[in-house]
Amino acid sequence: MKVEQIYTGCLAEAAYYIESEGEVAIVDPLREVAPYIEKAKENGAKIKYVLETHFHADFVSGHIDLAKKTGAKIVYGPTAQPNFEAHVATDGEMLPLGDIKIKVLHTPGHTMESSTFLLIDNEGKETAIFTGDTLFIGDVGRPDLAVKTDLSREDLAVHLYDSLRNKIMSLPDEVIVYPGHGAGSACGKNMSAETTDTLGNQKMFNYALRADMTKDEFIKEVTTGLVEPPQYFPKNAVMNKMGYESIDEVLDRGVLPLDVEQFVDVVERKSAMILDTRPQADFIKGFIPGAIWIGLDDKFAPWVGALITDLKQPVVFLAEKGKEEEVVTRLSRVGYDNTLGYLDGGMQTWQEAGKDIDTVKEVGPHDFTNLYDTERLNVLDVRKQSEYESQHIEGAVNFPLDFINRNMSKINKDTQYYLHCQGGYRSMIATSILKARGYNQIVNIRGGFNEIKKSCIKVTQYHEPETML
C-alpha cells in the first residue's frame, strides 16, 4: 500500500495518491491531471477511483478530465447531485482497492455532501482518513461555503459538530489525518502549517475536537470571525458540480504566441484584459499601459480569483519565457479558462514595435520615512484588516487589496497616495489596478511594512478605524 500527499503551495491544497496491488484512487485532484496519470503509469498501476470529498469552492478539481482519460469512476458521498456521470456512495459503503478498502463516511457540515474517506488496510485496521474540508490540522472547515442551500451557517455548523463527534472522533487515535488544505487556505480560519497529524493529537490540540465542547460553544467558535470568502468561491463550486471544459482545450487556446499586432487586435476586438505575470522587478522597469500585474511567483491563482470578477473575462498575458503553460494552468485551476494567448517576445518586442510603456512610481522605506516626517502623506495600507489591526503606520488608512474593486470609488484620482502591504507583492498588485483605472498619483513603498517598521516611523496598535480618504 502506498499513500502520497501531493501538496500545491499556491492554493494550500492537498491531493492524494493511494495505491494498492496495482489499483489507484486519487483524492481531490487538481485541474491538470497529467501528473496523476503519469505517476500511475510509472508504477504500473491503473486509476480506479477519483474520490471527491465535496464540491470544492477554492479550486476547480480535475475529476472530470481524469475520469475521461482513465476510465476511473468519480465517487461522491451521499446527497451529492453532480451534473455528470458519477457514483454517489451510501454512508458506510466500502470501495475495494487492491487488497485494501476505502469506507465512505458522510460528514456533512462544511457542505451537505461533504464526506470523509476512511482507509482500511489489508488486515482490517483503520489506518487513515482523507477529510477534505471537514477536518484540518488545527481547524475545521468553515460552514458557509455550500452551493445554493437554504441552510444557514449555524445550521451547517450543527451538522459539522455531529459529523465530527459521531463519525471521526470515534475512530482510533492512531489514525492519520490527511486534510484537503493547510495554512493559507481561505476554507478555514486557523489552519496549522502542518499538513498531516494523528487523530489523537488533533483531539488534544484542535479546538473543535475538544471533548467537553457543547454544541452551542462549537457553533459560536466556528461561525465567529469568518471573513467574506473570495468572490470566485461560489463560481468554482458550481463548475465542480456542473462540469467544465477540458484542460487540454484550455491549454491549446491559451498557450498561443501572439505577435504585437495580433496581441493588440485581441485586446481591442475581444476587450481582453492584459495580465502581466512577470517578476515584480521586471514589471517596475516598464509595462504595457493598462496591464494588471499579478506575479506568478506568489499566490497567483487565489489573487486572480479574488480580483478578476468575471471567470469568462478574455485574458492575454505576459510571462517569463518558458512559464507560459504554467500561467494558463494556474489560471484554469481557479476557473479562468478564457486565456487567448501571450505576447511572444514580451516587452522587448513591444518596445521594438515602438509601443508606449508605463512605469510605477516607487519610494524606498528610508525616503518614505523622511517624507512622512515632514509632510502629511496619504498612506493606504492594503493588507488585510486583521494585519492592520495588529499594527500599522499612524494615520494610515486600511484599504485591503481583497476588496479594492468595492472601495476604489472612495479614493480620489487627483490625490497622491502611498501604498504598502507587508512585503511588497500585494501593494504592487494594487498599484497596477489603480493605475489601470486612471489613478495616476500612486506611489508604491518598496519593501512594505517589513522595511518601514525598521525605521523610526511611528506605528500604532489598532484603536479605531481610520475613515476612508
CATH class of the largest domain: Alpha Beta
Regions with little confidence, pLDDT below 50 for 5+ residues:
none
CATH superfamily membership of the largest domain? Ribonuclease Z/Hydroxyacylglutathione hydrolase-like
- Fraction in helix: 25-40%
The biggest beta sheet is recorded as: 6 strands, mixed
Write down how many β-strands occur, each being a DSSP E stretch of 2 or more residues. 24
Averaging pLDDT over every residue, what do you get? 95
The tally of helices reads: 17
Alpha-beta content class? alpha/beta
Strands of the largest sheet, in order across it?
A: 1-2-3-4-5-6
Query: What fraction strand?
Result: 15-25%
Output the radius of gyration. Answer: 24 Å
Distance between the termini: 60 Å
From the 3D structure, determine the CATH topology of the largest domain.
Answer: Metallo-beta-lactamase, Chain A
CATH architecture of the largest domain: 4-Layer Sandwich
Count of discrete domains: 3
How would you describe the shape? Answer: globular
Reconstruct the topology from this structure.
Layout (H helix, E strand, L loop, with lengths): L1 E7 L4 E8 L2 E5 L6 H9 L3 E6 L11 H8 L2 E4 L10 E2 L5 E4 L2 E7 L8 E6 L5 E7 L20 H16 L7 E4 L17 E2 H7 L9 H9 L9 H10 L4 H8 L2 E2 L1 H11 L2 E4 L3 H6 L6 E2 L6 H8 L7 E4 L5 H10 L5 E5 L2 H7 L8 E3 L1 H10 L4 E3 L3 H6 L1 E2 L3 E2 L5 H4 L9 E4 L4 H12 L5 E4 L2 H5 L6 E2 L9
Parallel strand pairs: 3-4, 4-5, 5-6, 10-11, 13-17, 14-15, 14-16, 16-17, 18-23, 19-21, 19-22, 22-23
Antiparallel strand pairs: 1-2, 2-3, 7-8, 8-9, 9-10, 11-12, 20-24
